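Reopening closed ticket. The problem is back. First fold of the pair:
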Amino acid sequence: MRAAVVTAFGGPEAVEIIETDVPEPAAGQVRIKVAAATLNPVDAGVRAGAFAGLFGNAGERHGLGWDAAGTVDAVGTTAGAAGWSVGDEVVALLFAMGASLGTHADYVIVDAAAVAKAPTTVDAVHAATLPLNAVTVTQALDLLDIQKGQSLLVTGAAGAVGGYAVQLAAHRGISVTALARESDEALVRSLGAAHFVTSGDVEAGSVDAVLDAAILGEAALEWVRDGGAYVGVIPQGAPASVRGVRTDAVSVTPDGARLAELVALLDEGVLTARVAETYALDDAAKAHARLAEGGIRGRIVLVP
């Protein structure tokens, strides 16, 4: 089978397509024949060596891709007991940091507990954008622990993570202020934002909490009221607490049950899966180059 990997850190040209054996699922795992897999910023970080030393080094093989949509192709000895059978259409989240193979491949092995039934209202390309980004948001909202009627500012609200954050928070009855470019105001309001601001418009201490999808750090922390909460999206990258503000950063954990809840919200129309562009798996390096250019609304998706 084919898989996109890096063995030497660098720019988009570092991505290579290799031929490797089709992996076999162990107990408690399923093998998925990948129909679509999202390209996320974390993949660019792996490719560039941002996590070198923590999750492997140059010269080793690093897989790319965290989330996928496809069909169960084989099950381990206990995966069937978990409810999965060959032929099931699914979405899944793989914690790919340090893995030698990720979801940017023809087949991927995933823990059965990280899998959910695929949405019925969108195709596999759109479904593939859900797992990593939406699960990250739900776990970030859990850390923020804000309640109905409280206020949340989402930075980078027009992005893939930010967009899901606006929709999920608004669905919970939280008053959402979206921070984005002026040209994105109509978009973020359509996602459920009650208020819209650009970075120069935010008053210090004006919201109960910030979900910092744009990775603004200390600047975003200033917008939280005394005793409020801040959560970022870079593990261990939260700024130091000030004025009694709780600060944390989400480190996403695969969770099939939570993913199933998100699939249901997608099918109900609460969530919107946004695809910017698609590329063939063989053109993964070109997809990385497009991601590096920026200006993307939604996600790039690779199709084997």
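Second fold of the pair, where the issue appears:
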Amino acid sequence: MSQATATQVAAFAAPEPKAPLERTTVPRRAVGPHDVLIDIKYAGICHSDIHQVRDGWREGIYPMVPGHEIAGVVTEVGADVTRFAVGDRVGVGCFVDSCRECEACLQGQEQHCLEATGTYNALDENGDPTYGGYSSHIVVDENYTVRIPDGLSLDVAAPLLCAGITLYSPLKHWQAGPGKKVAIVGLGGLGHMGVKIAAALGAEVTVLSQSLRKKDDGLALGATHYYATSDESTFTELAGRFDLVVSTVSAPLDLGAYLGLLKVGGTLVNVGAPEEPVSLNLFSVIGGNKTLAGSMIGGIAETQEMLDFCAEHGLGSEIELIGADQINEAYARVEASDVRYRFVIDASTI
């Protein structure tokens, strides 16, 4: 596919809020001096895709082509590109541009730039909508593209561009490692990567899930302990146990109950984003000098660091590969927690 001029590419899009996704075409810009054209091989399905397609977080831009877990191969580079060459295996995550001048950008925290441009459901610097990875090709600035190491196959690497970095960043920031007790709340697309990464960092890992249905999986992924949060005795037995609790669930939680699981000075980090507000009795953080925190993906350099770490430790995502005509069914199954543990679209079927 030559990209001398802007062109149309195959894609799956939601034409309006809450509508099923359907096959269509969307425009891709001409390859600029610092751009790479990527032949998308695989695209992961993230729960945030569903939130946005259904206007769960804010009013969306339609037609919407979701997808910010993108793995593919470079097929063309701009005249001034220095980081990549044709044939390179690359990935694209949740954002494709930022201002490059603010404090966040200069600190390598581009995801927190107030002008960051989402990979989809956003407007670029020209005011045109961005379209995500449920498509055959994408054009991205080389500075917002990462290299996928040879040690990772592209299909299991795709979900790392969101699920992987979403867990790697807080685990590194709050120093999960030897001697630390870490709990991962929820064993889904995010949570299963949290277990793998925390274990690889050397922490003692506990899974906190609604039921014991996935216990064998959790232990096989690297957890030492597994408890059901539907059992009230769990919160009594584990009170004051953990240095760090990372919640990956997108449903409102009783934050006080989970804060009660922390040691003195411990931290509860939320990476799941419920659509509904949650309440909190502040005595839950005052007692024990505890911290309630949030974390959102990671910057470009940290995302590359995560990919290199996962390749070194063999930490690909556990996936179910699907064709594009199964996307709507996959959405329903994600909402029913019926996937182990990430749907990945074979982009050749788009």
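Update: turned out to be a display glitch only; the data is intact. The chain has two domains: 7-161+318-349, 164-294. Residues 164-294 form a domain with the Rossmann fold fold (CATH 3.40.50.720). Please close again.
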